[in-house]
Write a structure and sequence with these properties.
The protein has 414 residues and is α/β, with parallel strands linked by helices. Helix content is 45%, strand content 17%. Bound molecules: nicotinamide-adenine-dinucleotide (NAD).
Length: 414
Amino acid sequence: MTEHINLFDNVNRQFDEAADILEMPQEVRDVLKTPYREVSVALPIRMDDGSLKVFHGFRVQHNGVRGPQKGGIRYHPDVDLDDVRALASLMTWKTAVVNIPFGGAKGGVQCDPSKMSLHELEAVTRRYIAKISMVLGPTRDIPAPDVNTNAQTMAWVMDEYGRKAGYQPACVTGKPIELGGSQGREAATGKGVAIITREACSVLGIPLKGARVVLQGFGNVGSYTAKFLDEMGAIIVAVADHTGGVRNAGGMDVTALTTHVKANKGGVAGFTGGEAFDAESVFAQDCDILIPAALGGVINKVTAPDVKAKLVVEGANAPTTTGADHILRDKGITVIPDILANAGGVTVSYFEWVQNLQQFFWDEAEVFQKEEKIMIQAFHDVHGKVTKHGCTYRTGAFVLALERVYKANLMRGW
Ligand code: NAD
């Protein structure tokens, strides 16, 4: 059930809805939409079976007017330059929404980690970083994990970057704690999604205690979102991922599901604490809150008409197409956009960068307390724009971000 969409066009349509409200001149839109720099590299790797294979990697730096460019690295067979452009631009708007001193970037390598050995993944990562290292650095562009990359990948990034630059832990975030990673970074995105869900429920009058939640994706973002919402009293009634779907109207045991997923190569299929259902129908499941936490473009013109939730909170990046956004709005469903909802990850990445620059570390409680303060502030800043302009939360978040980036650009000069 897919709709063919270009993610970069999709983000730029969202940009234009806010730019229209701000009556932003076309020439300014052109500057703010266009990425600063795009790097495309070929990565020849000797595979374990002796064959030589060429992988393709990208790094897009979208905008650095408010600080070094920041964004994750995604490993996926389908990732292409337009996806990376879209995700890089979302990082520019996201860092502006939470008002941290970064711009936006993103990286991607076309590969399927499920079919690669650890040795092959390390080789791809090192070759990719060696080929783009001239545009990276703590004051230029700072990568982080995204889909199919993790703390181990970031350790290789730091090591490879350090071959020429020396010990520079602030060159990448999402590192293992032992190498200068921040306490709380692993849980940060899910924690932020849960905080934003709580704030949204509060202004929308949806009681979070007992609210029925459906998730697509139970990786880093999905599993931690479920954990924190469960702790806040919500009930996780269905979860779907690339292996299938499981549901239980009475609520699932999130700890048991997390243990099952870890033991089953990242998949929810086979979990006995619920009944199996067709993962394709995840967006049509009955619930109060729907949280996409996997890939982009999944809530589209095909799936949106069946959404039954009152509230959609975007854990994933770019999960909703512009067409679907309008369908959900017309159905009276509130959507909290990615650039607000999942910004807890980059916020704690910012804390990691700060701690690395100072070489002075904070405990988890301090990290979470600082994250919570920023997320609550961002939610209410966006809510202020929604109230002022009578727009959706997505447009309100873009208005806030565009104002901040535009102002910084005006002051620095074009
Ligand atoms: P992850 O690799 O840990 O998990 C990805 C999840 O998506 C897995 O549960 C996987 O089964 C599921 N999935 C993959 N393909 C699927 C398919 N075809 N159908 C259904 N489910 C599928 O990745 P993550 O870090 O949790 O990232 C998830 C989303 O959140 C991405 O859009 C990412 O860009 C976004 N995000 C991540 C972070 C972060 O800190 N990790 C921060 C902000 C946004």
